[in-house]
Specification:
The protein is of the alpha+beta class. It has ten helices and 13 strands. It has two domains: 87 residues, Roll (Ubiquitin-like (UB roll)), CATH 3.10.20.70; 241 residues, 2-Layer Sandwich (Creatine Kinase, Chain A, domain 2). It is globular, with a radius of gyration of 21 Å. The structure holds adenosine-5'-diphosphate and manganese (II) ion (3 copies). Belongs to the glutamine synthetase family.
Length: 361
Amino acid sequence: MANYSILQSFLSLNQPDDKIQVNYVWIDGTGEQLRCKTKTVPFVPVKPSELPIWRYCGSATGQATGNLAEFGLIPVALYNDPFRRGNNKLVLCESVDVEDKPTKTNKRSSCLSVINKVNEDFAPWFGVEQEYTLIDVDDCRPLGWPKKGFPGPQGPYYCGVGAEKTYGRHVMESHYRACLYAGIPIAGENAEVMPAEWEYQVGPCAGIAIGDDVWMSRFILHRVAEEFGAKVTFDPKVIQGDWNGAGAHMNFSTKQMRAKGGLKHIEAAVLKLRDTHNQHIPYYDANGGKDNERRLTGNHETSKINEFTSGVGDRGASVRIPLQVAKDGCGYLEDRRPASNCDPYVVAEAIVRTSVLLIMK
Ligand code: ADP
Ligand code: MN
Ligand code: MN
Ligand code: MN
């Protein structure tokens, strides 16, 4: 077991001003897991474009086969590093292959080109409600669950308080503050319906920042949990049976929806999402997982996978218009279909294509 006071004594050594540690973070070949490696640079970066492109071994990350695997990392979004602190940074990177083309699991460049097409006229905003489950590294069960059998049935855990109702609040609290320090706009948090499951909300973010911020928030969550010896899973249905799954509801608006009288634009977008339901579902499971099949059962605050439903304040719908939005007559809509392990770049691109550009791929 590591001795953390010794570690702390090394981390408090003076750091030379011209030796800044930048942790390059990227999505690996699973399309779900993240990787990182650190580069020392001789200046304090202010923009990601000031940082050099860096190469890595694409074979070791499931992104290339064979020896010609010098894949590239292009820095695209810069954050303060809540772990090393000071002038040190985290930087989210797009991964590219040996020809500098986006790798298979790099969905950012395609999302960005779609957002760039609509940004001036529609100014899309997004917010993701990221659900996750904490897992005990020793017994691989949700954190705090009994070694044998199950905790009491769902009911008291959602937004619960007290040692018998919440498991892993230390991870949630540390992650929340670490994200704010990094520069990620966390809108809030809550304990979820299944014990050891939590939610935090990212946003609202303008355009491509939603994908960057959600991915970096996931990295920070894994990293925080690592400090505590816990594991994070974004699996959308961790425990079969009468236990809620985990989603990543995508909230979406355009400037027309946010303006006075915007509800009619929201309703029009809901109809577009209805007409393209059969295209969205496989697209959201972009990494080949059958994730929404396991989760979208029609129970546990989900819709059925093969049916599109919508409604005001309806938490069993595919797409919901929040009650307050209906009351205000403007605001945003919520796509409740994306699973917790979705790629926010893919979901954001699909929603913009369908509801603004009117063309899915
Ligand atoms: P729920 O009622 O579904 O649990 P939450 O309060 O958990 O909703 O999350 C709401 C999400 O909506 C947050 O991520 C927030 O950033 C986002 N959001 C708020 N306003 C907008 C908007 N105008 N456009 C897009 N997203 C928004
Ligand atoms: Mn929520
Ligand atoms: Mn939730
Ligand atoms: Mn929601």
